[in-house]
Amino acid sequence: MNLQWQTFNELILDCANKYGEKNAFSLYHDEKWQTLSFVALNEQSQLRATALLQSGHQPGDRIALLAGTSIEWIAQFLAIVRIGCIVVPLDPKATEEELEIILTHVEPKSLVAAKELQGFAFQAQQKLKIKKILLLEVLYETEQKLDFPPTDKKQTAAIYYTSGTSGAPKGVMLSMESLLSELDTLLAYQESVPTSVVFSILPLHHLYGLVAGALYSFACGAEFVFAHRLSPVDIRFCLEERKVTHLFVVPLLLQIMHRSIQEKIQARSPKEKFIFQTLFKISALFPYSIRRKIFSKIHEQIGGRLEGIVSGGAPLDPKTYHFFCRIGLPIYEGYGLTETGPVISVNTPRHHKVGTVGRAIPCAEVKVIANGEESEGEICTRGPHVMQGYFKNPELSREVLSEDGWFHTGDLGRIENGYLRIIGRKKSLIVLHSGKKIYAEEVEKILSSSELFQEICVLGIPELDRGEQVVAVIYPNTKILLQEFEKQKLLIEAEVQNATQVLAQFKRPIRTILLQEPMPKTANGKIRRNHLREKIIREQM
C-alpha cells in the first residue's frame, strides 16, 4: 500500500507546513481555552523528542504514558513515535493494581506521568525498576538540535492494552504502517476539511479516540476540540463555543443526549409538543439541510453547525439512531477493534445502510467464515491495519492471526451487498440446555426501546442442571430509582416481560436483575460483560 506519509515525522512536518498557525487542538480546562497551532505542535513535539534523545532513549525503547486527555498528551505521543520509540498509553482511571500488572508486563524504560499521578509513578519506579520518570507538564527546553533517527513504517509504534487486563495482559502491538494506513484510508472519504471543527469525548489513551478522532482531525487540517471534564454542561459549552461540525462519540453519550432532549420536549406546552411530534413524523421526507432548519432550536443548543455524528465502540440502539436522523443529524456507525488499528468499516454520507456498520475501509479486506451453508459467521479482516500480534504472547497471537494474515475478530456478522452487519459476539452467545442459541445483542436491542432503562446487559447465567438461562440485568432511569426497591422491581420486571413479547419464548429472559448503580464499563463505554457475569454468578452461589 502506497502511504501518503511513510512516518509520523513526515505527517507532522507536512501538516505544519500546510496549516501553519491555524488551531490544531483546543482544550477547555479550568473555564478557559488552551490552544495549539499546527506549527506550535510540531515545535513542542520536537522539543519533547529531543529531550527523550538527550536522556538516552533510542528507537525501540518502550515509554509508558500515564495521563488524562490534554494538549501535552498528544504532543508527547507524537514526540515518542517520531523518534522510533514505542508508546504505551495507560488509562489514568485504572486502579494501581491494574497499572502495575501492565507495567510489569511491558517493562518500559521510562514512564511519562501527569503531575497528579507522580506519586504513583515514583512508587512504581522503585517497585518495578523503571529507569526514568518524566513529568508530562514539564517541557525541557534545549538549544541543541539533534537529528532524529530514521524510522520505518514496519516498526512497532504503540502497544495498546485492551480492557480486562487485570488477569492476563493483552498488549496489542501496532506498527507505524497500521496507524498511518488508517489515516490514509479515512482521509480518502474527505468528510472533514480544514474548515471543520471536530469534537470528541473519547479519551486519547483509547485507540478509537486517538486515531479516528485526534489524528484524523490533525491530518485533515481540522481543529480538534476536547474538554478536560466530560460533564453534560462542558460538552454543550464546547459544542456552542467552538461551533463544532463533526462529533465522535460512543453510543452512551448519544443516549444521554437523546434522553435530555426528550425531557425538554416533554416539558413544553401541549401545543408545542403536538407541533414537534407532527414535524417529527414528516421530517423523513426532507433532506438533512431542511430538517436542521425545522428543528433549529435544538441545533442552536448544540452549536448550530453540527453536520454529522460518528458513533463506534459499541452498538447503537435503533431508537436513538432514528431520532437524531429525523432532526437532521445523520449518525454514521463504524466498527473495529484495538487489534485492527482500530477501524474496519464505517458508514459515510455517500455509502450508508441503516442497521449496518458500513463498508470495509479501502485498506481492509473483510470476510465472514460461516459454518456450512449459513450466511452468518465470524468476521475476519486482513490488511496493513491489523496488529503485529500480542506483546510477549505468541500463543494467543496464533489463535487469532492466521498464517496468511487474517485476524479473527470474535464477532459474528454477515455481509449484505458489501455492507457489514454485526450480529453479536461469539463470547456473548447464549447456549441453552436444549442446544438453542441466542444472541444477547438481539434481546438487548429489543429492550433498548424502553425509556425506563438507562443500561441493559443480557447474559447467559448457568443454572443448576439446566444449562445457561437468559438473564436481563437492568440499571433503570432516574425516576424509577427514586421509588422504593420493591416497586422498582415490579415495574422493571413487567417492562422486560412486555418488551420481549415480540421474541420467541426461548429468547425471553427468565430472570431480571435490578441494579442500583451503573454497570462496570471499559474506557470507551462498553459494559464489561464478563466482569458483570462473574459477579452475578458469585453472588448467587
Walk me through this protein's architecture.
This protein has 541 residues and is α/β, with parallel strands linked by helices. The protein folds into three domains: 8-151 and 189-241, 3-Layer(aba) Sandwich (Rossmann fold), CATH 3.40.50; 250-329, no CATH class; 432-540, GMP Synthetase, Chain A, domain 3 (2-Layer Sandwich), CATH 3.30.300. Helix content is 36%, strand content 25%. The strands form six sheets. It has a nine-stranded mixed beta sheet, sandwiched between helices. It has a four-stranded parallel beta sheet with strand order 4-3-5-6, with helices on both faces. Helix 1 runs antiparallel to helix 2, helix 2 crosses helix 3 (71-82) and helix 6 (176-187) packs across helix 7. The longest helix has 17 residues, at 38-54. The mean pLDDT is 90.
**Sheet with most strands:** 9 strands, mixed
Main structural class: alpha/beta
N-to-C CA distance? 54 Å
What is the strand content? 15-25%
What is the C-level CATH assignment of the largest domain? Alpha Beta
Order of strands, main sheet, comes to: 2-1-10-9-11-12-13-14-15
Total helical segments: 18
Radius of gyration: 24 Å
CATH homology group of the largest domain: ANL, N-terminal domain
Mean pLDDT across residues: 90
Q: Using the alpha-carbon principal axes, give the shape.
A: globular
Structurally, the number of domains stands at 3
The tally of strands reads: 25
Q: Please bin the fraction of helical residues.
A: 25-40%
Q: Would you give the CATH topology of the largest domain?
A: Rossmann fold
